Amino acid sequence: MRRVFFYFLIGFVFILLQTAFFPRLLPFHLKPDLLLILAVYLGFNEGFVRGGFLSYSLGCLQDAFAGHYLGLYGMALLAVFVTVRAIAERLNTESSPLLLILVFCGTFLQGAILFFSLGFFADTGPMLPLLLKYLVPQSLINLGAAILLLLLALRLQRTLPAQVEIPGLRRLNSRYEP
Question: Apex CA 139: angle with CA 138 and CA 144, to 5°?
């Protein structure tokens, strides 16, 4: 129960950063999607039921805060989580570069789902040029944010008392430790 509360707290902070803080500093299409990074992290560390519930709930909470169609981001984050969870069962999840690669690829999956859903419900014309124009820079921004969050999490793990542990970080290699 404490882990679920911890994930919701982190997700709520990420939503506040994405909806209130980043739009004031960065152009709209060039802000990191922190909830996508959290959904990939959940795919590595949580089971299908708990992680799926958290991913969908946080996506719907983002929809409520940002004024999007209710359930759109929930569906997209759930699809990213399920894909990452299915991959994580077959690969070595002790590698932090795999986390970064899946954040990069998860951006494309989430973008494709969002563009398809919005294109299906609205007549916007050809979607492929828009998809390629925004997803390549977005995936690089998400990758950079994931690297920074991973470094921050590893630093927090070292400074916290020994009995407090961030879920999943004990398995990561020492590639990002100074």
Answer: 95
The C-alpha R_g of the chain, in whole angstroms, comes to 16
**Which residue carries 């398995």 as its tokens?**
171
Cα(44)–Cα(40) distance, rounded to whole angstroms? Answer: 7
Which among 130, 121, 125, 113 is positioned nearest to 36, based on CA atoms?
113
Cα angle at 10 between 133 and 149, to 5 degrees? Answer: 55
Cα distance between residue 30 and residue 134, in whole Å: 8
* Domains of the chain and any CATH numbers: 2-176 (1.10.1760)
**158 — phi, psi (to 5°)?**
-75, -30
The pLDDT value given to residue 103: 92
pTM of the predicted model as reported, rounded to 2 decimal places: 0.85
* Tens-place pLDDT, residues 4-37: 888 899 999 999 888 888 878 877 677 899 999 9
Distance CA 54, CA 48 (A): 10
